[in-house]
Amino acid sequence: MSSALTDGELTVLGLLVEQPRHGYELERVIEERGVRAWTALGFSSIYYVLDKLAKRGLIEATSAPSSGKSRATFRATVLGRELCAAATRDALTTLTPMRARVLIAMANSPGLSDADVVTGLTRRLEALREELLDVQAARCRQAPLPTAASAIFDYSEAMLAADISWTETTLGTFAKETAMDKYDIKKVHRVLYSPPSKEFTVVDVPELRYLAVDGRGDPNTSAAYANAIEALYGVAYALKFASKKALGRDFVVGPLEGLWRADDPSVFITRRKETWEWTMMISQPDWITDDMVRTAIDNVAKKKENAALGDIRLHTLVEGTCVQILHIGSYDDETPTLDRLHNHYLPDSGLTFNGDHHEIYLSDARRTAPTKLKTILRQPVKTA
User: Fold this and answer.
1) Range 345-360 average pLDDT
2) Mean pLDDT over residues 80-107, rounded?
3) Is the CATH number 2.60.120.200 carried by domain 187-383?
4) I want to staple 273 with a disulfide (CB 3.0 to 4.6 A). Which of 101, 140, 218, 234 is the partner?
5) What confidence category does residue 302 fall into, taking pLDDT thresholds of 50, 70 and 90?
6) Shortest CA distance to 260 belongs to which of 269, 249, 251?
7) 250 with 240: CB under 8 angstroms?
8) 3-state secondary structure (DSSP) of residue 143
9) In this structure, are residues 55 and 164 in contact, taking their beta carbons and an 8 Å threshold?
10) What is the spatial distance between Cα 115 and Cα 244, in angstroms, rounded to a whole number?
11) What's the rounded Cα separation, in Å, for the pair 379 and 262?
């Protein structure tokens, strides 16, 4: 028998069984009791429902003032009371159908990036928390409540709390997977980016790809060097955002790295920086293409002019066997370590130079005290 009444019809009929009411009073009670938290019943639909119930003989008008239908008072008929009681008994045993739209969204979510799913679930969580606060506020406004009304609020709060719990758990899972899927060269190649600081270690460096720009001169005073660093980071972040948006693949922008070269390697020990040639680099995931780099360069150039942008390229570096160590301290204090590497460790190990001196800057020099800077010193080698 309950199938003969929609949720909206049963709600309005129940309120009229409780006592005769006109349309505006029904709206007030529905609003005050927070009925819309558990049934879809808008103000404009109240009169539509009243018409349907009246045509079926379930309610009747007790008065129809000259001002019009808007103030007509309705009451339940005998038939309406009987049907309301039967439908209510049936509704007490009826399970709530699982038709939440979010379930359709989750079924379709593989077509979105994890970032989009996280954004959507975050907004859902905020809305659920706001709705729970609204229901709790409505309950407080009407306290103390009769047992039945209190049970209604209990149910609404329990359903919202359960939805909040589910959303928090699902959001946490997706956020964790998104973080795990984010490419980070320092984690993928942990051994290469976490050497000890007390002793030299030998590592095998695979082929890696970088954004790169070449230059010459003292990095402390060269305008070309400053331009190169600014251009590298600008393009690196443009690529990160473009990759995330277009491909749904995110990555952590890697640390600044530098290849340093000179005809005489001893200049690195004597710190004659004006004679240094350099290639500054930031690592890139293997899915970054030349076309993506060119587009990123163009986009950065539209925002700010920088002569170094025209020199940036996607560079593949193959270093192979290398010796490396972590240096802690200022860049100018690298001399003793490099002297030990060049004049003691390499000769004693039967090794010699096989490529450019490579430095990886794990610290931000703008925010880190010189004595706490962390720099990986890496030297490609071969058998002497």
Assistant:
1) 95
2) 82
3) no
4) 218
5) very high
6) 269
7) yes
8) coil
9) no
10) 8
11) 14
The residue behind tokens 């490529």 is: 355
What residue type is assigned to position 26 of the chain? L
Report whether 361 contacts 256 (CB < 8 A): yes
Alpha helices (H) in 94-113, listed in sequence order: 101-108
Q: What is the pLDDT of residue 270?
A: 64
**C-beta neighbour count of 45 within 10 angstroms:** 12
Contact between 64 and 73 (Cβ < 8 Å): no
Q: What is the pLDDT of residue 177?
A: 65
Which pair of tokens denotes residue 296? Answer: 């990123």
Name residues whose C-beta falls within 8 Å of residue 42's C-beta, 6 or more positions apart in sequence. Answer: 36
In terms of pLDDT, which residue wins out, 67 or 133?
133
Q: Which residues are bridge partners to 316 per DSSP?
A: 209
Q: How large is the C-alpha radius of gyration of the chain?
A: 35
Work out the pLDDT band at 69, boundaries 50, 70, 90. Answer: very low
> Would you say domain 1-94 falls under CATH 1.10.10.10?
yes
Residue 165 corresponds to which tokens in the numbers above?
Answer: 């719990």
What does the DSSP assignment read for 156-211? HHHHHHHHHHHHHHHHHHHHHHHHHHSB-HHHHTGGGG---SSS-EEEEE--EEEE
Q: What is the DSSP code string of 233-297? A: HHHHHHHHHHHHHHHS--BPPPPEEEEEE-SSTTHHHHT-GGG-EEEEEEEE-TT--HHHHHHHH
Q: Where does the pLDDT of residue 180 fall: very low under 50, low under 70, confident under 90, or very high at 90 and above?
A: low
List C-alpha distances in Å: 182 to 173, 178, 191, 252, 360.
14, 6, 18, 7, 21
Tokens 């001399």, residue located: 335
Please report the pLDDT score of residue 343 as a whole number.
92
Residue 48 has pLDDT above 70, yes or no: yes
Q: Is the pTM of this model over 0.70?
A: no
Burial class (CB in 10 A: 0-12, 13-18, 19+), 123: exposed
